[in-house]
Amino acid sequence: MSVNRTEGRVAWLAKAGFADTAAAQRELDGPLLSDIDAADLVAALGAVADPDLGLRGIGRVLESLETDERRAALRAVLAADSPHRRRLLAVLGFSSALADHLCRHPDHWLDLGDLSSERRPDAGAVRARLLTAVGADPAAPVPVAVGESAELLDALRVAYRRHVTALAALDLADWLDVAAVAAELADLAGATLEAALAVARAALPDGAPDCRLAVIAMGKAGGRELNYASDVDVVFVAEPPASDPDGSTGWLSTATTLATALMRACSVYTAEGTIWPVDAALRPEGKRGPLVRTVASHVAYYQDWAKTWEFQALLKARPVAGDLALGQEYVDAVMPMVWTAAGRDHFVDDVHAMRRRVEDQIRPAEADRQLKLGPGGLRDVEFAVQLLQLVHGRADVSLHDGNTLGALAALTAGGYVGREDGAVMDAAYRFLRTFEHRIQLRGLRRTHVVPDSDEQLRILARSLAMKQPAELVDVWHQQAREVRRLHEKLFYRPLLSAVARLPGDGVRLSPEAALARLRALGYADPAGALRHIEALTTGVSRRASIQKTLLPVLLGWFADAPEPDTGLAGFRKVSEALGTTPWYLRLLRDDGAAAERMARVLASGRYAAELLLRAPEAVSMLGDGDSLRLRERGPLEKEVLAGVQRHDDPVDAIGVVRAMRRRELFRVTVADLAAGAPVEDVGEALTVIAEVTLSGALAAATRAVEAARGGPLPTRLAVVAMGRLGGREMGYASDADVLFVHTPYPDEDETEAASAALAVANEMTRLLSLPSPEPSLTVDAALRPEGKQGPLVRTLASYAAYYDRWGEVWERQALLRAAPCCGDPELLRRFLALIDPLRWPTAGLTDTQIRDVRRIKARVESERLPRGADPSMHLKLGPGGLADVEWTAQLLQLRHASSAPALRTTSTPGALAAAVAAGLLSADDRSVLEDSWRMSARIRNATVLVTGRPSDMLPKDPKTLAAVSRVVGYDAGESAMFVDDYHRCARKARAVVERLFYDDAR
C-alpha cells in the first residue's frame, strides 16, 4: 500500500493504532521528521500503547533539544530498530507525565540506551545516586546536602523522575516482572527519603542539638512492593545522640524539625512538580500523636493501647533511611508484639471487620471499577495473606515477610495455602498490580480506579498486549472473581479463629509445651499422645507442615470430645493411610467444619474411628454438608445392585455391598455425633442400610445359586423384616431379624423349589457372615415358626397353615413388626395380606391371651436378664427400659388395631402417637414413655459408639460411663447427673407401664 495517497495513509495509520490520523499525518509531514522513514517509524509506533501520544512526544522532545547535533543523535536512534528506540517509544507512547519530563530534560532520553533488565542497580546504588543529586556524600555517616534549598528540591525531583523514566522504559518495553518493578520503586523511595533527610539537615540552623533519627517505611514501601504513584507511609523514631544519652539538649526538637522538613521536601510542589506525599498517620495515636517518638515510647504504646489493625500495619515495617541501626532497634522491639497479636481477644473478628470497613468506604460511583479496595481487588489478596501470616507466623518464622508475594509463597510452601490456590492467587495479584501500574503510569497519578473511557481502556489493553478493551475487561473480571473466591476461602477459614485462640506455647508444639498442654487438656496418656504428635509432625515435608498447623487446634477439639487419646491415635492412623492423598490434608486445612467434625467423630470412641480406618476415603464427606445427609433407600439400593451385577464371584459382589455399608455407617455416625441427629432418624438410616445390605446379599446369593444350578430359580423368594429391622428402629449393633418366604412358580417341583430357596437363604447368610473388619450384620431368623427347630424357608401356604393351627399370641405379637424387606414384591404383598388379620385381630385379644402376653413378658425379664445384673441398669429389660415401652405399645396394638387403623404401624413411637389420637393413651403418658424409650435407645447407641461393642447395660466403668454421657449430650463431669436422669426417666416410664400394661380396663 502506497503511503503517498491520502486515503491509503489514513487506513495505514489507523491500522497501526492511531486514533487521530489527520494529526499523525501532519506530524509525519512536518520538518522535524522529514528525514526519517515514515513507514518504519509508524511501524515502530504501532507496537506502543498510544501511537498518537508517542508521535507527539517525539516531536516535542526534538523541539526541546537545543542543538542540531543533539537532534541528529535522536533522529539516528529513531531511524533504526534497536532496544533504545523501543524503550524511548514505549515511554513516549504511553505516559504523558514521563513524556513531559523528557521534554523538560531532553538529554535524559540518552539514559534509555544503556539499560539492562537483568542488571538493575541495587538499593545502595540507588541511594548513592539520589544523595549525589543533592550534593551529599553517600559515604558520610550522616549525609548532608549542599546547595540552595529550592535548587536541592528541584534536583531531588529531577533525579527521582529520571530513575522512574528509565525503570518505566524497561517495564513497558521489556516486560519486567511486576514484583521486581515494585521492589525497585520501594528502593527508590528509601533513597529519596534519605536524600530528603540530607536536604532537611542542610536547613538546620548552626548549633542545633544533635539527635539520632530513623525513618521506618510502612505499607507498600516497607513491603518493597511500591506503586509508580503512591503515598509513602512512614514512622519516625528518634533517640538522643550517643554523646548525650540523657537527652538534655533539645534533641527531640531537632528530630521533629528534621522529620517535618523531610516530609515537606518530598511533597511540596516546585518548578519540577512533586514526588509523593509522605504519610506518617500510621504512627501511634495517628495524626493526633507526636510525629517523633523514642523506641521505648513506641513499645509502651503498642503494649497498652494499640489496636489490632496497628499490629497488622507493623507487619511491613522496615528501616529505610536515617540511622538504620536505630531503625533496626525499633523493628526488633516491636516485631515480637506483631507475631503474638493474633492471640488477642477477637483478633480474627477485628481483621474481618476492618476489611468490611474498607469495602464500605468505597465511593458508589467507583464500586465497579475499584482495582484496589473492592471485592476481588488487591486488598482482598493482601488482607488474606496478612491474616494467615499473623495467625500462623507465631510458630513459623518463614512467614515473617513483609512482601505480599513473598509471604504468599511462604504460606504456600508451608502448606497453609494449597499449591493450586497459591499459584492462582499469585498470578491474579501480579496481573492486578501490573494493571494498576499501567493505570498510574499514564499520568503518574495515584489512582486505583479503572477508567470507563473506551479509548483509555483501548490504550491500557494495548499496553498489556491485548487487542481489544473487552479482552482486558474480561481478564480483569475473571482474575477478580478468582481473587474473591480465594479471599473468602482463606480469609474466612474457620480454622484461623481456632488457631488464633490458642495460647502462644500451644501453637508452637515444642515437646515441653505440648506435654504441658496435653496434661492441661485432660489427655489420659500425655506421653503417648506426644509420640503421636512427633510422628505426625517430624520432618520438613509439606504433609508435616500442614499437620503442624492442624494439630494445635485438633488437640483442643479432641479434648472437647469424650475420648481425646482415641481421637489423636485415630487421626494419626487415618493420616498415615491418607497423608499422601492430595485432597485429604487440604480438606482439613481449608475447611474448619470438616476438621472439627473429624476431631469430634474420632474422639467419640472406637466405632467411628475403626470405621474410618477401614474406609479412610470417607473423610471426604466431612467437608460437604450435602454428603452428610442420610440417604434414602431407592438410590442407594440401585447403586448397590448395579455393583453386584458387575461381579460373577459372590465374594467380590458382597464386597461391593460391604463397601457401601462401611461408607453409609460412617455417614450415619457423623450425622449422629457431629450433627446430633434424632435417635429416630438414626434408626431409620441404619434400617435403610440394613435393608440395602440384605437386598444386595440376596442378589449376590441368587446369582451364585442360579449359576450353580445352570438356570433361574424355580420359585419366588422374599425376605420379610422383623423386630427392630421391621420397626425401622435399628441400632448400631442390631441383628437383622428376618423371615424367608417362597412360593414355587406354576408347574415347578415343590421339593426342587424348596431346595433352591434354602440354598439362596443359606448362601445369603454365608456371604454376610464371611470374616470382615467392619461391624457385622447378623441375619437372625429365630422368629420363624417353630424357631430354630423349624425350616429356615417356608412357602406362603406353609406359613398360613402354621399360623392357622399353631400360632401363639407371642408370634402374633412378633408379627406386629413384620414389614417388606427385599425380594419378590408380589410375594411380600401376599405375605402381609396373610398376617394382617393375625396381628390385628378383629376381635382383639381374649383375657387369656392378655394374661399370656403379661406372663411371657415376666418370663422374658426373669430369664434373659443377666445373672447378677442390676435390673435398674439394664436398658432393655430393666424397669422403664425399651421392653417395657415396646410391650406396652404392642399390647395396645393387639387389642385395638382392628378399631383404630392408625395403630397398624411397625413403629413404637408411631404406635404411641396413634394410641393418643385414638384416646387410648394420654399425651402426658405418651411423652413419658417416648422419653424413656428414646433415652434408652440413645444410650445403647452411644455405648456402641464409645466401646465398639454392643451392651444393654449402663456402663459400670467410670471412664466409659463418662464417655457415653458425653456422646449422649452431657458435659464433662456430669456422668452422675446422666445416670440420675436416666433412672428418673425410667422410673416415671415404669409407673406408666404398671398402670397401662397391667390394667385390665385397657
UniProtKB/TrEMBL annotation:
One of its GO terms (molecular function) is magnesium ion binding. Signal peptide: none annotated. It holds the Pfam family GlnD_UR_UTase. One of its GO terms (cellular component) is cytosol. It catalyses: [glutamine synthetase]-L-tyrosine + ATP = [glutamine synthetase]-O(4)-(5'-adenylyl)-L-tyrosine + diphosphate; [glutamine synthetase]-O(4)-(5'-adenylyl)-L-tyrosine + phosphate = [glutamine synthetase]-L-tyrosine + ADP. Residues 1-495 are annotated as: Adenylyl removase. Its EC number is 2.7.7.89, 2.7.7.42. Gene3D superfamilies: Beta Polymerase, domain 2, Nucleotidyltransferases domain 2. HAMAP family: GlnE (MF_00802). Involved in the regulation of glutamine synthetase GlnA, a key enzyme in the process to assimilate ammonia. When cellular nitrogen levels are high, the C-terminal adenylyl transferase (AT) inactivates GlnA by covalent transfer of an adenylyl group from ATP to specific tyrosine residue of GlnA, thus reducing its activity. Conversely, when nitrogen levels are low, the N-terminal adenylyl removase (AR) activates GlnA by removing the adenylyl group by phosphorolysis, increasing its activity. Belongs to the GlnE family. This is Bifunctional glutamine synthetase adenylyltransferase/adenylyl-removing enzyme. The gene is glnE.
